[in-house]
Write a structure and sequence with these properties.
InterPro entries: Dilute_dom, IQ_motif_EF-hand-BS, Kinesin_motor_dom_sf, Myo5c_CBD, Myosin_head_motor_dom-like, MYSc_Myo5, P-loop_NTPase, SH3_Myosin. Belongs to the TRAFAC class myosin-kinesin ATPase superfamily. Myosin family. This is Myosin VC. Pfam families: DIL (PF01843), IQ (PF00612), Myosin_head (PF00063). The protein is an alpha+beta fold. The protein has 48 helices and 23 strands. A hairpin with a 7-residue loop joins strand 17 and strand 18. Helix 33 packs antiparallel against helix 34, helix 36 runs parallel beside helix 40 and helix 46 packs across helix 48. The longest helix is centred in the middle third of the chain and has 99 residues. The protein is flat, with a radius of gyration of 49 Å. The N and C termini lie far apart (about 100 Å). The relative contact order is 0.07.
Length: about 1400
């Protein structure tokens, strides 16, 4: 129909877009079109084959080509061009294929930050990237324990080597092990070596791989790299002796020549590359931007990293230099049949390889022919001798290359057992040149095999998808290239006929070609003979027809060197070293016969028949290719197709002809064709509901099941049920149906816009009309009034004004009086209220004065009583000592002594009774502890001593007076018993009031119940126990730790940092004792204990917060009580009295500060690990603004996250997590400044992760998503305001994200827009601004893409900026943390240790 757009062929651009201007009717032979340049065209059409339709603009530029509604060649080409040229995106999915365009420019999309961004993500969640394919392979290997392969193919210069290198770097980064073997570094180090000896400059590529390479990267059960193994295919040996114009030999030769002046290379006698035939043939010895000398250093460095010693390197470089000198050997013609050689380069060649100069000179110009009867030595012509020289050089380099590869494999072989592996295949793509020879034939044969494997894999995946969704499977017709493969490799095929011809000594290329003509012309449709040539043949490959020149096929397949030269080389010391090494790896000989290093399919290479072995290049290649296909079929393949956008190596230039040629050759279009035959567009029910809910009716939306809603709506919108299928989780659409639905959606939105515009315009016009009408009425009023003015009217008007004046004055006075009365009443009530309030306050103050008077009096009396008790205690102790001394002095007196003893005993008992009655009830703690001993046992001791001594004197000296004194002794015993009962009573009271040490209480109770006769003995035991208890307490003090304390509970509800205060009080006790050893031991134990609890709870946020707070409080206490003036000025006088006296703890403060920084970093890491999984779903994927959906078709690679937010993180989840962090930090008493720093760090993480994900997700770069992001940022700002954290600078960390959201929403058309963007986006780098502009994706037809010219304008305005070219923000960046000094307001003497701490061994000093 009209206004639809179609694609028509174009000679320059391959396909050209045009718009239909007149409805097409069935049977019409002409299509009326309007080209994009305004030209009208009547395009002839065939009714059976109409031009392909163009996709809606909304679908152009998709990440996945399978998301296109119309799947065909022009749609694929246009989508790639839009992404590559306009959006500067080099990667695009095509089903299971990653299409990689070579940008010919360094892009900032391969850093470690990008690797970490793709790590753990699903392919559909991020923009297409080589890292996404590598992550998918790594993930499937880890999840399914199945080997994987990443197949990278493409033309020379398309970027295969770089893509394979990035894939390997990804595996090395994400699977990095903790071992010291540096396996990953060694795996990556193999690339510079293989590129040096196997890559060369060609007309298409400055670093073209001239061999195929399959690298197996081995992993253990923990999915960490354990080693690697490399297999190579079909090295281009002819490049050693010949290069086309503007091409170079292998890089290693030029690196050697550039380093020839270095001391370690002078013995090689090399010079500039222009001096050697093998390096100057192409006329281009220098590559712009490449430093061969620096590359040589890198090559030597990687040799060393792989463990290849200097003597090995020296031998390698000798052989390479020998090849260069061999190429300079001049052969002169003696006659038509003879030639000779005498050259200084031959001498150097022989010197480097330690060969016999004369023998080499002889056999370069002669050959030995062995017959059954004799051996004939035949001279060679100059041409034959040159060919022999070149063949020898090729043979030496070929085996040297194989040897280096094997040594690399040996260096990459580690003892660990291989659990799984990922293979990276870097192999040449389909090639067709003006002249195609044996190498191109082998390359295209390998690509035929790979294409067959690829077709079968795609077919298998399609079938699995249909079966999984319970959709009827219909056989899809796809191209099968088995007939072409049979033509090449089957019995009596091209390769077998080639090998057969090589068996004949007189076999020629012409004879072989004639056999091909006889066997295949008119018999095989895939084989043709050129019309204008009798030396070529044509094969119809899957990609294109290729014409091969038969010249040189036999020689290249034979790949022979004269045996005499081989025997001479065997005598070389250098070559012998190589032979021995290769024999260790299972090779039969180094220089004899062709290399069989890749024929793993052949258990014994020597078992190949001799005739076949002499022409076994094709045999070798077939065997290695068979092994490769066997390996690939046993793995899960992942495909990367590298495309060369132009032949001039221009950055972001798109040559449609070259690109479409490669797309046809690499299988991308075949994938599209297979998909288009069935149901290429696939949507989940949720995606369909979210996108097309606008097309649903009210009664349909009333249904509860979204799946049923989708089915009902689709049946109403698309009448033909064959155009779609309902799967288990997806809806499958045929080609064009999504475009039709998009058209319906656009029409509905357009109609809604028209209605809105109609009403808005109607409202604006009506408002304008009413404004004009009002103006007209005013004008009419004044005009009519001007005519009606008279004298009477003036008098009446004046009278009316006077009346109004008096009336208004009366009303105002009346109102004023009313207000005056009301004000007086209000003042009366207010003054009364204030007077009563003042009276109540005075009354309370008076009562408080009375209370204070009595309280102060009571405190004064109590203080006086305490002083009096203290004096009495001293007097009592002094009198007891005097009495005891007096007893000793009067021991010899008898009768006077008895009387004095009785008197003194009664005095002691009276004093003891007085002390018990008056002092003990009010001063119980003095009874138990005073100067490290107890008073009560002393009194008991004195009494017992007197009693014991008195009895002994009476028994020995006064037996006659014994009866007289028994009554007095019984009186004393009665007094002591009464005293014991009083002590028991006092002990009960003391146990009720205080929780004293159990051992002391036990000893006191035992002392009071013992017999008075054993008092003296028991006092000694009591002293020993007291000393033991003191020792135990000191030991506990030193080993004190709080690892069992929990952040939640009674601890955090008391003084913030209570454990820190307790720790400091222990430090102060050590300072009080002036015990340096105790202090050192305690501080060491405390810091070790904190480290241990942090290590054991490394992922526990609450524990981290708790100990970060206590470590900071402990550090602040050490500063606050250090005695330093700068800290003391913040203390109270009482706190300054508690400062440390004997030790300077500045050294321990530094240790604690370092520990606090360590805890803080771990604390931030724990919070980031908890928050990071929520950021992208909550900030980007969740639609916080209802009705603003940014969903578009996603194609084959579906997003992992569902649009249904029931099981995913939302913005609310982020805010709840932040609130949890904040409340926990506050609850644990973390300093407010430290809380602000932590919140700032979290907000930076949110902004950085969101912005990084935005850079890597083109589908998120839309105006609507910018609105969503800005809304989410406002929620975060509200949270900051609610928590009073505006001063934390957290909002400033979101500035780059704010500017990115603004950039998505702002208009991007005019020069003023570009200027505004350059002035406003100051927190974004130039690379980031350009990336967002290039990635901007319209969600609806009403939005417009950002034109490349506008992007260039912005870029030109920002050229003067000096910022980093880094695209991604560093999410691991940590702001510098500062620990503010906040003195504790709590007095140490007021702090009590709760019983829940279980620290009963601690007592207050």
């Amino acid at each position: 129909s009209s206004y639809n757009r179609v694609w028509i062929p174009n000679s320059e651009e391959v396909w050209q877009s045009a718009e239909i201007t007149k409805n097409y009717k069935p049977g019409d032979r002409v299509l009326h079109l309007l080209l994009e340049d305004g030209t009208e065209l009547n395009y002839p059409v065939d009714p059976a084959s109409l031009p392909p339709l163009r996709n809606p603009d909304i679908l152009v530029g998709e990440n996945d080509l399978t998301a296109l509604s119309y799947l065909h060649e022009p749609a694929v080409l246009h989508n790639l061009k839009v992404r590559f040229v306009e959006s500067k995106l080099i990667y695009t999915y095509s089903g299971i294929i990653l299409v990689a365009m070579n940008p010919y420019k360094q892009l900032p999309i391969y850093g470690d930050a990008i690797i970490h961004a793709y790590s753990g993500q699903n392919m559909g969640d991020m923009d297409p990237h080589i890292f996404a394919v590598a992550e998918e392979a790594y993930k499937q290997m880890a999840r399914n324990n199945r080997n994987q392969s990443v197949i990278v193919s493409g033309e020379s210069g398309a970027g295969k080597t770089v893509s394979a290198r990035y894939a390997m770097r990804y595996f090395a980064t994400v699977s990095k092990s903790n071992s010291n073997a540096h396996v990953e570094d060694k795996v990556l180090a193999s690339n510079p070596i293989t590129e040096a000896v196997g890559n060369a400059k060609t007309t298409r590529n400055d670093n073209s791989s001239r061999f195929g390479k399959y690298t197996e990267i081995s992993f253990d059960q923990r999915h960490q790299i354990t080693g690697a193994n490399m297999r190579t295919y079909l090295l281009e040996k002819s490049r050693v002796v010949f290069q086309s114009e503007n091409e170079r030999n292998y890089h290693i030769f030029y690196q050697l020549c550039a380093s020839s002046l270095e001391p370690e290379f002078k013995h090689l006698k090399l010079g500039h590359a222009e001096e050697f035939n093998y390096t100057r043939m192409g006329g281009s010895t220098i590559i712009e931007g490449v430093d061969d000398r620096a590359d040589m250093k890198e090559t030597q460095k990687t040799f060393t990293l792989l463990g290849l010693k200097e003597d090995f390197q020296r031998d390698i470089f000798k052989m390479l230099a020998a090849i260069l000198h061999l190429g300079n050997v001049q052969i002169t013609s003696v006659s038509d049949e003879k030639s000779s050689v005498r050259d200084k380069h031959l001498n150097v060649f022989c010197e480097l390889l330690d060969l016999d100069n004369d023998r080499v000179a002889q056999w370069l110009c002669h050959r030995k022919i062995i017959t059954t009867s004799e051996t004939v030595i035949k001279p060679m012509t100059k041409l034959q001798a040159l060919n022999a020289r070149d063949a020898l050089a090729k043979k030496i380099y070929s085996h040297l290359f194989d040897f280096i590869v094997e040594r690399i494999n040996k260096a990459l072989h580690f003892s660990g057992k291989q659990h799984t592996f990922i293979g990276v295949l870097d192999i040449y793509g389909f090639e067709t040149f003006d002249v195609n020879s044996f190498e191109q034939f082998c390359i295209n044969y390998a690509n035929e095999k790979l294409q067959q494997q690829f077709n079968l894999h795609v077919f298998k995946l399609e079938q699995e998808e249909y079966m999984k969704e319970n959709i009827p499977w219909t056989l899809i017709d796809f191209y099968d290239n088995q007939p072409v493969i049979d033509l090449i490799e089957a019995k009596m095929g091209i390769l077998e006929l080639l090998d057969e011809e090589c068996l004949f000594p007189q076999g020629t290329d012409e004879n072989w070609l004639q056999k091909l003509y006889n066997n295949f012309i008119n018999k095989n449709p895939f084989f043709q003979k050129p019309k204008m040539s009798n030396t070529s043949f044509i094969i119809q490959h899957f990609a294109d027809k290729v014409e091969y020149k038969s010249e040189g096929f036999l020689e290249k397949n034979r790949d022979t060197v004269y045996e005499v030269l081989i025997d001479i080389l065997k005598n070389s010391k250098v070559s012998k070293f190589m032979v021995i090494t290769l024999l260790e790896w299972g090779f039969s000989n180094f220089f004899a016969g062709p290399s069989f290093e890749n024929i793993s399919g052949c258990d014994d290479p020597t078992s190949i028949p001799k005739g076949v072995a002499n022409c076994c290049t094709s045999v070798q290649f077939r065997s290695s290719l068979y092994l490769l296909m066997e390996t690939l079929n046993a793995t899960t393949p992942h495909y990367v197709r590298c495309i060369k956008p132009n032949d001039e190596k221009l950055a972001f230039e798109f040559d449609s002809k070259r690109v479409v040629q490669q797309l046809r050759a690499c299988g991308v279009l075949e994938t599209i064709r297979i998909s288009a035959q069935s149901y290429p567009s696939r949507w989940t029910y949720i995606e369909f509901f979210s996108r097309y809910s606008i097309l649903m009716m009210q009664h349909e939306l009333s249904l509860s099941d979204k799946k049923e809603i989708c089915k009902t709506v689709l049946k109403r919108l698309v009448q033909d049920s064959n155009q779609y299928q309902f799967g288990r989780t997806k809806i499958f659409f045929r080609a064009g149906q999504v475009a039709y639905l998009e058209k319906l959606r656009s029409d509905k939105l357009r109609q809604a816009c028209i209605v809105i515009q109609k009403n808005v315009r109607s409202w604006c016009q009506r408002k304008k009309f009413l404004r004009i009408k009002q103006a007209a009425v005013v004008i009419q009023q004044y005009f009519r009034g001007q005519q009606a003015i008279t004298a009477t009217a003036l008098k009446q008007t004046w009278a009316a004004i006077v009346i109004q004046k008096f009336c208004r004055g009366y009303l105002i006075r009346k109102l004023c009086q009313l207000i005056h009365v009301a004000a007086i009443k209000i003042q009366a009530y207010v003054r009364g209220f204030l007077a009563r309030k003042k009276y109540q306050k005075m009354l309370k103050e008076h009562k408080a004065v009375i209370l204070q008077k009595h309280a102060r009096a009571w405190l004064a009396r109590r203080r006086f009583q305490n002083i009096r008790r203290f004096v009495l205690n001293i007097q009592l102790s002094y009198r007891v000592q005097r009495l005891q001394k007096k007893l000793e002095d009067q021991v010899d007196d008898k009768n006077p002594f008895v009387l004095e003893l009785n008197c003194q005993g009664f005095q002691i008992l009276e004093l003891l009774q007085q002390y018990v009655n008056t002092e003990l009830p009010s001063h119980t703690d003095f009874v138990l502890t005073m100067g490290g001993s107890t008073l009560l046992p002393n009194l008991y001791s004195i009494c017992s001593f007197q009693f014991y001594f008195f009895n002994r004197v009476l028994e020995s000296q006064f037996q006659s007076q014994k009866e007289n004194y028994e009554k007095e002794i019984e009186a004393l015993n009665f007094k002591v018993g009464h005293l014991s009962q009083e002590i028991i009573h006092l002990q009960k009271l003391f146990r009720e009031e205080n929780d004293i040490n159990d051992s002391i209480r036990l000893e006191v109770s035992r002392l009071t119940s013992e017999n008075m006769v054993r008092f003296k003995h028991y006092t000694g035991r009591l002293k020993g126990n007291i000393a033991f208890v003191s020792t135990v307490c000191d030991k506990h003090l030193v080993t004190l730790d709080f690892t069992d304390l929990k952040p939640r509970g009674v601890v955090v509800n008391m003084i913030p940092g209570l454990p820190a205060h307790i720790l400091f009080m222990c430090v102060r006790y050590a300072d009080y004792l002036n015990d340096g050893e105790m202090l050192k031991s305690f501080m060491s134990t405390a810091t070790h204990g904190i480290k241990q609890v942090i290590k054991e709870h490394a992922e526990d946020f609450e524990m981290m917060s708790f100990w970060l707070s206590n470590t900071c409080h402990f550090l602040n206490c050490l500063k606050q009580y250090s005695g330093e003036e700068e800290f003391m000025k913040h203390n109270t006088p009482r706190q300054n009295m508690n400062c440390l006296k004997h030790f300077d703890l500045s050294e321990y403060r530094q240790i604690l500060s370092d520990l606090a920084i360590r805890i803080y970093h771990q604390f931030i890491t724990v919070m980031e690990n908890n928050l990071q999984p929520m950021i992208v779903p909550g900030m980007l994927e969740h639609e916080s603004l209802q009705g603003i959906s940014g969903l578009k078709p996603t194609g084959f690679r579906k997003r992992s996250s569902s649009i249904d937010d029931t099981d995913t993180y939302t913005m609310t989840s982020i805010l709840q997590q932040l609130s949890y962090f904040y409340s926990t930090m506050c609850q644990n008493g973390l300093d407010q400044e430290l809380v602000k720093q932590a919140v700032k760090q979290l907000f930076f993480l949110i902004g950085a992760v969101t912005l990084n994900s935005l850079f890597l997700r083109k589908d998120m770069c839309s105006c609507r998503k910018g609105m969503q992001i800005r809304c989410d940022i406002s929620y975060l700002e509200e949270w900051l305001k609610e928590k009073n954290l505006q001063s934390s600078s957290a909002k400033e960390t979101l500035e780059p994200l704010c500017q990115a959201a603004w950039l998505l929403q702002v208009k991007k058309i005019t020069d003023d827009d570009a200027k505004e963007i350059s002035e406003h986006c100051t927190s974004l780098s130039v690379v980031q601004i350009v990336k967002i502009l290039n990635s901007y994706t319209p969600i609806d037809d009403f939005e417009k893409r950002v034109s490349p010219s506008f992007v260039r304008k912005v870029q030109a305005m920002l050229n003067n900026r000096e910022d980093t070219p880094q695209l991604m923000l560093d999410t691991k960046y940590l702001f510098q943390v500062t620990f503010p000094y906040t003195p504790s307001p709590h007095a140490l003497e007021m702090i009590q240790i709760p019983s829940s701490f279980k620290l009963g061994f601690l007592t207050r000093v």
